[in-house]
Amino acid sequence: MDEKVNVLVIGAGIMGHSIAMDFAAHGYPTALYDQSAEQLEMAKKLVTGNVQLLEAEDMITAEGVKNVNDLLVYTDKLEDAAKKAKFVVEAVPEVPDIKQAVYAELDKLCSPDTIFTSTTSGMNIYDVVQISNPGRLIIGHFNNPAHIIPLVEVVMGPETSQETLEFTKKIYESLDHVPVVLKQYAIGFIVNRLNTALAREANYIVEQGWATPEDVDKAITNNAGLKLAFEGPLELYDHIGWELGKLGGTFLAPMLCNTTATALPDKLCEEGNLGVKTGKGLKDYSGLDRSEIQNNRNRKILKVIRTV
Predict the structure, then answer these.
(1) Whole-prediction pTM value?
(2) Pairing mode, strands 87-90 and 7-10
(3) Mean pLDDT over the full length of the chain
(4) According to the 3-state scheme, what is the secondary structure of the chain?
(5) Which of 19, 154, 248, 249 is most buried when burial is the number of CB atoms within 10 A of its CB?
(6) Domains, the chain, ranges and CATH?
(7) pLDDT over threshold 90, residue 139
(8) pLDDT value at position 2?
């Protein structure tokens, strides 16, 4: 995309810092806004780590590095950034009251033709917020880490205009992302519906005592995980035979978990072991640097992308 419009990312958390860096690296003047000075400082640290990793892996150009340094601005002052923005990415917590307040403020500060996108992972933003000119509102769900994972789920609302859809797709494609379009809101979109179905069955197997969490994970990483980078769950049946797909749907599917199966996550949450951000989840991360943990994971993703 030749025109590099001003971009505003609201929320400097796990998704926001990564999205803002991605826009800046591709030549977009980008403001990353957060009310918390502490969160902005953490975002700077994470962005620095991201850039260093991409440089080491030869996955970012010298121009991209320069763009991040020159075009990415961190701010706790919304008004100035909002007035300049032509494309807004909302990446605040999944709390309706917070989102309503953010969009009400943006609606007052931004120009009437500014595109508003939400990177919500499942909320029906169209039922939650009210803005003037709702034709410019659209969901654009990046996947973590946003500056590495190509996919963006684009979900149209009941009043989203075709012009907004096409412009938004072009923006994402200019970032070397792959947009997939849902023509209407469906809870969980594509990715989280599939992820949740798999996680529910994984939790159920552990809950029943049939296998350990470690062996459940190994069963995925040493089989389906090797193929999913280039072959989806539907194309798979072109290779193993759709008669097996029919058999699985009629025989095995009714035997699968049809409850919430949350015993394992319930236990971890009660213990306060939420994963990397608390220093412990299934694994113990205490004493390890969060940005280095993130970079080690990202290196593995980059190797897969480079190989495929």
Answers:
(1) 0.86
(2) parallel
(3) 94
(4) CCCCCCEEEECCCCCHHHHHHHHHHCCCCEEEECCCHHHHHHHHHHHHHHHHHHHHCCCCCHHHHHHHHHHEEEECCHHHHHHHCCEEEECCCCCHHHHHHHHHHHHHHCCCCCEEEECCCCCCHHHHCCCCCHHHEEEEEECCCCCCCCEEEEECCCCCCHHHHHHHHHHHHHCCCEEEEECCCCCCCCHHHHHHHHHHHHHHHHHCCCCCHHHHHHHHHHHHHHHCCCCCCCCHHHHHCHHHHHHHHHHHHHHCCCCCCCHHHHHHHHHCCCEHHHCECCCECCCCCHHHHHHHHHHHHHHHHHHC
(5) 19
(6) 7-182 (3.40.50.720), 191-307 (1.10.1040.10)
(7) yes
(8) 74
Share of the chain above pLDDT 90, in %: 86
For residue 201, pLDDT over 80 is answered with yes
Q: Which of 108-117, 199-208, 287-296 comes out lowest in average pLDDT?
A: 287-296
Helix 290-307 and helix 37-56, axial crossing angle in degrees, nearest 10: 40
